[in-house]
User: Which sequence fits this backbone?
């Protein structure tokens, strides 16, 4: 594989090989990014869907099931299966909404917070090391590339309200 750190890429014209290398880098990075978490999740009979639910509930305490579905873009049935297991096993707590009793508001329990910290710490360390090695300008470039790959609705979540993944509700 070519050394990407010294390659000069014309940003106005990307060759097929450069685009394919970008795809491969995403596959390899995702594999390595999820590997340690996947091993930890196996101990609980959880998968990546469980991890995503735990992560986004952690980032958005009190998130509604509807907002979580919007972020994850999975079916209600899939979320119900995963969420049901997390609630039964004491990782997530569900409360009824105060204004709308049909809403189910989700928060992590102490047990859920501990698992989220454990799962995220290795991923944080991996990203922090890559960011330090790449430098500030590259970090901003990476952010722009990632935003450019998102659907417009999700891109707005980051541009309007920061990185938490869900629009803030007025208090």
Assistant:
């Amino acid at each position: 594989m070519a050394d990407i750190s010294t390659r000069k890429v014309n940003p106005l014209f990307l060759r097929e090989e450069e685009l394919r290398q970008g795809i491969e880098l995403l596959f390899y990075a995702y594999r390595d990014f999820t590997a340690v978490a996947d091993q930890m999740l196996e101990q609980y009979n959880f998968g990546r869907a469980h991890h995503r639910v735990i992560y986004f509930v952690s980032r958005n305490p009190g998130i509604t099931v509807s907002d979580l579905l919007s972020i994850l873009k999975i079916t209600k049935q899939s979320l119900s299966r995963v969420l049901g297991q997390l609630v039964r096993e004491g990782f997530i707590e569900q409360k009824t909404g105060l204004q709308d009793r049909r809403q189910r508001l989700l928060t992590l329990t102490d047990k859920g917070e501990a698992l989220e910290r454990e799962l995220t710490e290795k991923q944080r360390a991996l990203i922090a090391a890559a960011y330090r090695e790449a430098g500030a300008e590259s970090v901003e470039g990476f952010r722009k590339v990632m935003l450019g790959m998102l659907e417009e609705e999700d891109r707005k979540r980051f541009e309007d309200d920061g990185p938490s993944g869900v629009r803030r509700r007025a208090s």
In short: The two ends are 52 Å apart (CA to CA).
